[in-house]
Amino acid sequence: MATTTRRSRSARRSPGFDALRIAFMALFLLFVLLPLYWMVITSIKPTSDYLVVPPVWFPAQPTIVHYTAALFSYRGLQALVNSLIIASASTVLSTIFGTMMAYSLARFNTGGQHLAFWVLSQRFLPPVAVILPIFLLFRSWHLYDTHVGLILAYTFMTLPLTVWMMYAYFRQLPKSLEEAALVDGLSRWQSLWMIAVPLAAPGIVAAAVFAFIAVWTEFFFALILTSRYAFTLPTVFRAFLGFQGAQYGEACALATTSLVPSIILGMLVQRHLVRGLTLGAIRG
Amino acid sequence: MAEVKIRALEKNYAGVPAVRGVDLDIADGEFTVLVGPSGCGKSTLLRSIAGLEDINSGTIEIGGEVVNEMRPRDRDVAMVFQDYALYPHMTVEGNISLSLRARNTPKREIEERVRRAAGMLGIGMLLKRYPRQLSGGQRQRVAIGRAIVRNPRVFLFDEPLSNLDAQLRDEMRGELKRLHREISTTMIYVTHDQIEAMTLADRIVLMREGRIEQQGSPLELFEQPATLFVAGFLGSPKMTFLKGRLERHGDTAFVILGAAGSDVAVQLPLPTGRLSTAANDRAEVILGIRPEHASRATGERPASGSVRVNAVIDFIQPTGSRSYATFDLGGQAMLAELQAHDVSQPGETIAIDINLNRASLFDPMSGKAI
């Protein structure tokens, strides 16, 4: 019976539908991958190959001169290091505090029924609304153009994201696990770190990755709150656009370099990321 | 081991009462079952004893010690949850030993106690597995093992068998009974299943709407139910309730079923001394008869205290070893228990002996036994 059903199901699907499906997927992949490919290729093209028609799909003489210029002449390496430090530190802080806040909201209903959503609603605030008071505060507290200042700013910026993700995750964890731990003799603190957090690890990883990406690509706060010392990768790209034209090669070289930490992070946490993103939709 | 005393315990959820002024004494080593329909407050009462719920008023004593303000970890109770609550990221050994590790028990002692608990439950070969690799019955044993290993004063069970299939439930019931016999620790067990209550309990506490409806030995509640609710809750199939009218003639009394003078009216004589003086002549009553107390007539005459009726069978429900026949008595449906080989056909008329010595009488207004 099942074989007959499968046969009739595939018989009902027309070749035209399959072709349409494949065409759509191909277009989508093209839309995503073509700009990436073009960026990487441009980063190793000689200057003369940038804008020729027909386009050069692979340079006859690849060069790394744009990389050395981007990293050293335009201070791209310092920006990369700054970004790594600031993104990593703010991600760690945001994840730790966000996890604890989310646990409190999920388990103790801290702040009543509205606090959780209020925390999330901070993400709705346009950065331009708060940047001026933050700028003035940072100046008076000597946090302007410092790593610590930007780490603090990004931690508070990404907290709503990590809190909301972990809140949803903790809410779907069975309470009986922690109750069993409390009866077994663990304190509430031990119950959090030995039971809830290990079980929430996929969610924590997913939240951390989202927080990292948010900080890694953030431009506006970095532009306003940094200058000569704590500048990050996104702010350096301004330097490639000048009155004399755009430095396409250097821009693409730096952009390609900035992909590397994200790719490494993604590969390291891939398994946990998939589990975390589904947020325990299927109970084990 | 310890006795548990509860006095005037009240617990509300956002103003909605879940437990209302419960008083309960559980003797040292007793197996007490809290039973009742969903929402009656039995789980809330159990969780309050465990310290997982803060109570609004009243006191809870364990072993002579008031534990109201104590954290769960300090009450020396162990709990087995309905969904097992095994830690998925720990092995069976890790699950069982966590409570001992949390108390900084020496490693050697942990190993010894875990081995002993696992041996008692037949799960010694599962110690290195994770909960996801276990069957439902195995998980339940691990949950029990986690409780046993601590040698607590009181065991608390919150519907531990409700997620198991019927066959496994029967098996685990036997295991729990054996366990109680072996370790003789005070056990408080919550279930909505009256079969579990009847088979496991030294004492049943039947709850309804946050209050204790009746408590006593299983046989006491079964044979002398204090209210309609108790009578209807215990027993499967449940007791048949017949609306009638009481008539007293001196020392004798009858229950009249059906309208007086009608074709279907039946007069059932109550055994001498069956009634309390509280029952008024001509009072409306409810007569409760269990199916097992109405059976196919044997002998020339019914036994003393029994009455013989001619029953026209409406339909039969076979269950294997016995069958239940429904017939009309005084215009109301009545259930009788027949032997499997004694099955009659619908429409057939057979003689049924009803043992009124074992019948119950209730006041329809208050629901209480007369």
Structure description:
- The complex is a heterodimer of chains A (284) and B (370).
- The relative contact order of chain A is 0.13.
- Helix content of chain A is 73%, strand content 1%.
- In chain A, strand 1 (241-242) and strand 2 (245-246) form a beta hairpin.
- Chain A is built from 13 helices and two strands, in the order H-H-H-H-H-H-H-H-H-H-H-H-E-E-H.
- Chain A folds into two domains: 12-63, no CATH class; 74-277, MetI-like (MetI-like fold, Orthogonal Bundle).
- By secondary structure, chain A is an all-alpha fold.
- Mean pLDDT of chain A is 86; it is low at 280-284.
- Chain B is 23% helix and 35% strand.
- Chain B has eight helices and 20 strands.
- Chain B has helices spanning 42-50, 92-102, 107-121, 136-148, 166-183, 194-200, 218-223, 228-233, and strands at 4-13, 16-26, 31-35, 57-62, 65-66, 77-80, 154-158, 186-191, 203-208, 211-216, 240-249, 252-257, 266-270, 284-289, 294-296, 306-318, 322-329, 332-339, 349-355, 360-362.
- Chain B has a six-stranded mixed β-sheet, sandwiched between helices. Chain B has a five-stranded antiparallel β-sheet with strand order 13-12-11-14-20. Chain B has a five-stranded antiparallel β-sheet with strand order 15-19-16-17-18, with no helix packed on it.
- In chain B, a hairpin with a 2-residue loop joins strand 17 and strand 18.
- In chain B, helix 2 (92-102) runs parallel beside helix 4 (136-148) and helix 3 crosses helix 4.
- Chain A binds chain B through residues 174, 176-177, 179-187, 190, 194-195, 198-199, 284, and chain B through 50-52, 71-73, 77-79, 81-83, 85, 87-89, 98-99, 102-103, 132, 146, 150.
